[in-house]
Amino acid sequence: MSDSHTLEHIHENMLKLKMFSSEKIIDSQLEQAVSRSLSTTEMLDSILDYEVKSRRTTAIDTRMKLSGIPVRKTLEEFDLSFQPSIERTLFDDLRTLRFIHNADNLILLGPPGVGKSHLAIGYGIAAIEAGFSVYYVTSVAMIDKLKKANSRGTLEFALKTLGKFKVLIIDEIGYLPMDKEGAHLFFQLVSRRYEKGTTIFTSNKSFSEWGETLGDNIIAAAVLDRILHHSITMNIKGESYRLKSRRKTGLTYPPPGGSA
Ligand SMILES: Nc1ncnc2c1ncn2[C@@H]1O[C@H](COP(=O)(O)OP(=O)(O)O)[C@@H](O)[C@H]1O
Ligand SMILES: [Mg+2]
After folding, report:
1. Is the dihedral of CA 55, 61, 64, 65 positive or negative?
2. Ligand 1 centre and the CA of 114: distance in Å?
3. Mutate which of 79, 88, 118, 202 for ligand 1 pocket (most atoms within 8 A of beta carbon)
4. Helix, strand, coil percent content, the chain, rounded in steps of 5
5. I want to staple 236 with a disulfide (CB 3.0 to 4.6 A). Which of 43, 93, 110, 149 is the partner?
6. Whose atoms come closest to the Cα of 112: which ligand?
7. For the CA atoms of the chain, what is the radius of gyration?
8. Is the CB of 112 under 6 A from ligand 1?
């Protein structure tokens, strides 16, 4: 076979093997290999390495798009020194993602602005980068989704879908109280995910207030019983980061000396 025929054959096989990224650059890679006098082993290594890396990037991009994460917030961007109530050992231990391997839940509690959503998303992105499937939803949107599914007779499918993500982030529990149907659906979802995957919850309400949030003490107790069985709680007792940035610009809230 002539060189050009061989090259054509390589292209064909790469496409059959779905090595789409490498196929696009194989010609220049081969030229470079010659000009840099790479050995055959080195050349093969560099081609395969390129394909593996680009597949990983594509997979991360896809999981990121599917995750519904509204804004990119990373753990690297999180200023731990601003929030002394978060222990560095816990923050770092969570970064190993062992809790996800163990299907433990993570519950982030604290007042508004302390970084609950930032951390939930940060650990979510770390999980996506490590190869886990992640889905983000606010508690209001989730209840809405489940209610719609319930009325259409597709609840089982919706629960299955939300059940299959290795990590589910349910943000903002407690900002709006749930009605009876909402609380019941929430319980069903929690039961479905129990011991199967990690759910990251954020809430501005302490556990003792979840009865009020769910509108039913018995359901709240049943929900908490399952959520807390294998879980880590991070109780953030700090100041709002939003306030800090506003204070920097001279706008304080509540106004000094005034009542909010
Ligand atoms: N410790 C922190 N370091 C860096 N940014 C932070 C920190 N805490 C909060 N933020 C930022 O402040 C804003 C409010 O945080 P957020 O996570 O939405 O708070 P919460 O969900 O607790 O109400 C976001 O833009 C977030 O990225
Ligand atoms: Mg939030």
Report:
1. negative
2. 6
3. 118
4. 60, 10, 30
5. 110
6. 1
7. 24
8. yes
Q: In what order do the strands lie in the sheet with 134-138?
A: 134-138, 167-173, 198-203, 105-109, 231-235
Tens digit of pLDDT for each residue in 198-219?
999 999 999 999 999 999 999 9
Could you give the CA distance from residue 80 to residue 122 in angstroms, rounded to a whole number? 13
Write out the two tokens for 97.
């993602």
Whole-prediction pTM value? 0.88
pLDDT tens for 149-187 read 999 999 999 999 999 999 999 999 999 999 999 999 999
Q: Does ligand 1 have an atom closer than 6 angstroms to the CB of 78?
A: yes
56 in contact with ligand 1, CB cutoff 6 A: no
Residue 100: strand, helix, or coil: helix
CA dist 43 to 30, 53, 56, 125, 230, Å?
8, 15, 20, 33, 48
Q: How many CB atoms lie within 10 A of CB 57?
A: 11
